[in-house]
Amino acid sequence: MKLSLGSLVTITDQKGRSHTVLLEEGKQFFTNHGSINHDEIIKSGEGGVVSSSSGMLYTIFSPALQDFVVGMPRGAAVIYPKDAAQIVELGDMKPGSKVLEAGVGSGSLTLHILRTIGESGSLTSCEIREEFLKVASKNVEKYLGYIPQNWNLKLTDIAEFSSDEKFDCIVLDLLNPWDMIDVVYKHLRAGGHFVAYLATTTQMSRLVEALKETNNWTDAIASETLYREWHLQGLSVRPKHRMSGHTGFLVHSRRMADGVSVPPRRQKPAKGAYGADYIAKQSQEAEDDN
């Protein structure tokens, strides 16, 4: 890709530290190893090397999406690339898919979805906090260079969302997704995918049990994704000491057709799974909600 003013680039020094830079006329980028002229970056081009004023060498590339979202400005915690990739896969998103998301945060998942569904798909994003919506919008525009016409932003609670359109996939990144099951059911097509991103085991358990009670959803599958790189240097081959471990849980289920209940599973629950402790816990949660 030919670099020009307005291009977004990632420069990486000889110690492996990266910086994302928006190229502007006559500007300089300052690091611990001196300054770098934006004009020199443009002149060197993508795949080239530029030197700072103190002699540190930097490689130049257009930023990969996974690099951009980790370092982009945040209004809320971002959904990391490892989780975003799983959400896209679990939701069976593809070019032409119609997707609804609630809880936009900083726009990390938004970018992954937009790239997956292409221009033939559509994405509707609901967010109750205006400051988050502004941050997400700026991040999307910064990375893509424009606001896609097939991205519909709504400053609203998904509980109050109204549309005649049926979606192929709905993704929730909320504190209380179990309260939105009826809303999701209403706006999701039969056979559509429901994916929730959750922070804690109690949220995960509560959502799964709430889905079971309706009989309108397939057995939910809960998962988490761990990502670890490896150190490779001669005969020194081992896992790196740092890894991207637990960041969140994913719950995935599919909507049954109208008027159709999911067949009961011919599988006994674990002993004590729905014993006195579980019943007491459910009663306490009901009291707290009231």
Automatic annotation (TrEMBL):
Family matches, as Pfam families: GCD14, TrmI-like_N
SUPFAM superfamilies: S-adenosyl-L-methionine-dependent methyltransferases
An MF annotation (GO) of this entry: tRNA (adenine(58)-N1)-methyltransferase activity
Signal peptide (residue range): none
Entry-linked CDD domains: AdoMet_MTases
GO terms of biological process kind: tRNA methylation
Coiled coil: none
Record flagged with keyword Nucleus: no
InterPro entries membership: SAM-dependent_MTases_sf, TRM61_C, tRNA_MeTrfase_Gcd14
A GO cellular component annotation in the UniProt record: tRNA (m1A) methyltransferase complex
Region annotation Disordered: where it falls in the sequence: 257-290
Alphabetized UniProt keyword annotations: Methyltransferase, S-adenosyl-L-methionine, Transferase, tRNA processing
All residue ranges annotated as the tRNA (adenine(58)-N(1))-methyltransferase catalytic subunit TRM61 C-terminal domain in the record: 70-233
PANTHER family for the chain: TRNA (ADENINE(58)-N(1))-METHYLTRANSFERASE, TRNA (ADENINE(58)-N(1))-METHYLTRANSFERASE, MITOCHONDRIAL
Protein name, as recorded: Unannotated protein
Organism phylogeny: unclassified sequences, metagenomes, ecological metagenomes
